[in-house]
Write a structure and sequence with these properties.
The structure is a single chain. This protein has 477 residues and is of the alpha+beta class. 33% of the residues lie in helices and 24% in strands. The strands form 5 sheets. Strands 1, 2, 3, 4, 7 and 8 form a 6-stranded mixed β-sheet that branches. The protein has a 5-stranded mixed barrel with strand order 13-14-15-17-16. A hairpin with a 7-residue loop joins strand 13 and strand 14. Helix 11 runs antiparallel to helix 12.
Length: 477
């Protein structure tokens, strides 16, 4: 007889997380009323580009659509990319109720059971969102690219646009595999691969740790590895390219806001090389760290170990304010180039003002003092809200891990040691069957496949703890 264990996904109240971080899904009544009456302050000066068959690509079910794109090949083998970004500054009254509340929030916060939006949903998921079939105000980027997908000409101006389709990542990937991509993005796979090659050439570093995601499972919740398709990567290259072009415009004008990250610390690279050698993972001396990480086999436990240590390469993310002079650090070390956030103004406050800089610079006009003043406050606002967003995500995952595993204390699991015990620090193990990364007392070195026992799973403290089960190694059969 085969015993089948039935696991029921537990119900979890994420309201406690909202309360802990003082999050409110709803905006104040004055903010909602203002959002319902919002109009486009720049309607008279917009270029009508509703002829462009733009499409959006977002997670399934998303309604706050910041970006829409159209990509075509040129006769000389290059590309022309149009990228429309929701023009939030045009519909948010400076100094008004929506403006004040969005400054207090900083960004949209995402929880498994819904978002806490930066703007009232009437704007973020309604009149300002690039929903299909609806004319919308946008900042429209136009980039002419050569055959290597490198920009040769970049402009940005206010326009009226209309998306023709709302696509999602899984659907785009399926269409790409079937050779039936929407005509507006038929060139996206080639563009994406060229931009990825360019990223490796300039020393970009991309980390590929297992990304835990809390997802609905019937009436309850469970943890899964967030699937990432090639389509995700291709689409992200559009946003990255736009941010790099925006940063170049800002640096040339010495006005704006950069997202910065120091280059990989040589000592951290040396430590990673030492770990690779200890794991017998070849790393030729001439291969840069970004190319090395990009070439690892995602299915090997040694890759999991190396990726878990790689974040040490990328520390010190910040914001660099440009106001007549340049900060000491201009680059984003993970991207390998200067970079600015301009592509998500519905979800990130700083993008609203960074886009205004680009519009002014692109038009050859001075950046208004009001925009400069707003930019000066952005590093503090965005750093604080980034910290909160990270804590919210980790808290939701910790709560879900502890709740899902609570009935299984004493059970044994197959796991991979991703960080060995070190002095006062427990080891860290990844338990793939439960999509859990948690501390484990004792155990062997990095990369070892082991058997562990669940010691603690306490939803009240959101704590999960494993212990090494000596003498047992998972079967490779």
């Amino acid at each position: 007889m085969v015993n089948t264990r039935i696991v029921v996904a537990p119900a979890i109240d994420f309201g406690a997380v909202r309360a802990e971080f003082a999050l409110d899904d709803r905006h104040p009544a004055a903010s909602i009323a203002e959002a319902r009456k919002a109009t486009d302050r720049f309607a008279a000066e917009r270029e009508d580009r509703t002829d462009l068959p733009l499409v959006t690509i977002d997670p399934t079910g998303s309604m706050d659509l910041d970006q829409a794109l159209h990509l075509e090949r040129t006769v000389d083998g290059g590309f022309v990319l149009h990228y429309a970004i929701a023009d939030v500054y045009a519909v948010v009254e400076p100094g008004g109720a929506v403006d004040a509340e969005s400054h207090r929030r900083g960004q949209t916060y995402y929880l498994p059971d819904g978002s806490v939006p930066l703007h009232p949903r009437e704007l973020a998921e309604g009149s300002a969102s690039l929903l299909p079939g609806e004319p919308r105000p946008a900042a429209l980027w136009r980039m002419e690219l050569d055959a290597a997908a490198e920009p040769v000409s970049v402009t940005v101006r206010r326009a009226r646009v209309r998306s023709v389709a709302r696509l999602d990542y899984a659907g785009v990937q399926a269409d790409a595999d079937a050779g039936t991509l929407h005509p507006s993005i038929a060139a996206l796979p080639e563009f994406g691969r060229l931009r990825q090659a360019a990223a490796r050439a300039r020393g970009a570093i991309e980390l590929r740790l297992p990304e835990q995601d809390v997802v609905a499972d019937g009436a309850g919740w469970t943890l899964r590895i967030e699937p990432r398709t090639a389509a995700d990567d291709w689409n992200s290259q559009v946003s990255l390219l736009t941010g790099m072009c925006a940063a170049t415009m800002m640096i040339d004008a010495k006005v704006g806001l950069l997202r910065t990250l120091p280059p990989a610390d040589p000592e951290a690279v040396a430590t990673l090389r030492h770990t690779a050698a200890a794991l017998n993972v070849p790393w030729p001396a001439e291969v840069p760290v970004g190319s090395f990480l990009a070439g690892l086999d995602a299915n090997l436990p040694t890759t999991l170990v190396l990726m878990s240590e790689a974040p040490a390469l990328l520390r010190g993310a910040s914001y660099g304010l440009l106001d007549g002079s340049l900060p000491e650090l201009l680059v984003h070390g993970a991207i390998g180039a200067p970079y600015a956030h301009v592509t998500a103004p519905l979800r990130r406050l700083s993008d609203r003002y960074a886009t205004e800089v680009c519009l002014a610079v692109g038009a050859g006009a001075p950046v208004p003092q009001q925009i400069r003043d707003e930019l000066a406050a952005m590093p503090d606002i965005m750093s604080a809200s980034d910290s909160i967003a990270g804590k919210i995500s980790r808290t939701c995952i910790d709560l879900t891990e502890a709740t899902v595993l609570a009935p299984r204390v004493g059970d044994r699991f197959d796991a991979t040691v991703i960080k060995g015990a070190n002095g006062r620090r427990d080891a860290q193990v990844f338990v793939p069957s439960e999509t859990v990364i948690a501390p484990c007392s004792g155990g062997p070195g990095d990369g070892t496949q082991v058997r562990v026992i669940l010691d603690v799973a306490d939803p009240a403290t959101r704590k999960v703890q494993f212990a090494y089960s000596p003498g047992t190694v998972p079967s490779q059969a």
